[in-house]
Amino acid sequence: MGKYIFQAFLTPEDEGGYSVEFPDLPGCFSCGDTFHDAVAMGADAAKTYVASLLGRGETVPEPQHHSHPSGTDSVMVFFEADPTYIVEGAVISAAEASRRLGVSPGRITHMLDAGVLDGYREGRRTWVSVASIEKRLSETPKVGRPRKAQMA
């Protein structure tokens, strides 16, 4: 997993909150209700942007230091990213995934952390890709202990 630090500009909005822009990542924008929230949302946007570049085999731009425009704040944002951060295809909730796999929702979290299932967290909600659940169901061994012949 690569480690990245990019400069972000935070601009206060008239309606409240902040918009976030990364000058080295063209088209990478985000926003947040508070300064702290905007930085966190910006970090997630930059992580998604870089993971998408890596997934397509494109080069990640070298971060530069820019003088920030007046009326904006400048922060350096750190994040880790790799192509597996991007989950493609249909997703379902962790609760539904636990029902389909016959395990607890806590076990779903462990399976996501271990890389057995693909998914992501959005706030307090966890989403799991349907494809990874189907793959797990097709690979799941039978219940019970392995037969002695299989253990040899």
Describe this structure in words.
This protein is α+β, with helices and mostly antiparallel strands and 152 residues long. It folds into two domains: 2-84, Double Stranded RNA Binding Domain (2-Layer Sandwich); 87-139, Multidrug-efflux Transporter Regulator, Chain: A, Domain 2 (Orthogonal Bundle). It is built from five helices and seven strands; from the N terminus they run βββαββααββαα. The chain has helices at 35-55, 94-101, 105-113, 130-139, 148-151, and strands at 2-12, 18-21, 29-32, 73-81, 91-93, 119-122, 125-129. The strands form two sheets. The protein has a four-stranded antiparallel β-sheet with strand order 3-2-1-4, covered by helices on one side. A three-stranded antiparallel β-sheet has the order 5-7-6. Helix 2 (94-101) crosses helix 3. The chain is elongated. The chain starts with a strand and ends with a helix.
Radius of gyration: 20 Å
CATH architecture designation of the largest domain: 2-Layer Sandwich
Report the strand count: 7
Name of the CATH first level of the largest domain: Alpha Beta
Q: Note poorly predicted spans.
A: none
Overall mean pLDDT stands at 87
What kind of assembly state do the chains in view correspond to? single chain
User: So what's the overall shape?
Assistant: elongated
End-to-end Cα distance = 37 Å
**What's the number of helices?**
5
H and E string? EEEHEEHHEEHH
Trace the largest sheet across and list its strands: 3-2-1-4
Structural class: alpha+beta
CATH topology of the largest domain: Double Stranded RNA Binding Domain
Q: Residue share in helices?
A: 25-40%
Number of domains: 2
Major sheet characteristics: 4 strands, antiparallel
